[in-house]
Amino acid sequence: AFMLYMKEMRAKVVAECTLKESAAINPILGRKWHALGREEQAKYYELARRERQLHMQLYP
Question: Could you tell me if 44 and 2 are in contact, meaning their C-beta atoms sit under 8 angstroms apart?
Fold first, then answer.
């Protein structure tokens, strides 16, 4: 779920803080992830569940 969140939010964080290195961006994304409420995180957990199911169907 967090990886999908990072994929979606990385460009926004880079634009906000003008950092380019993953080592600097990832901790910011981690703090933002932990600041999200359960309902907001649930969206990404559901996306991750769907991705996992699709992967299992494509690669049994």
Answer: yes
Q: Interhelix angle for 22-35 vs 2-17, to 10°?
A: 120
Of the CATH numbers 1.10.357.140, 1.10.30.10, 2.120.10.80, 3.30.43.10, which one belongs to the domain with range 2-58?
1.10.30.10
* Full-model pTM: 0.82
Q: 26 Cβ partners below 8 Å, 6+ apart?
A: 6
Helix (H, G, I), strand (E, B) or coil at 49: helix
CA gap 2, 57 in Å, rounded: 22
Confidence band of 52 (pLDDT split at 50, 70, 90): very high
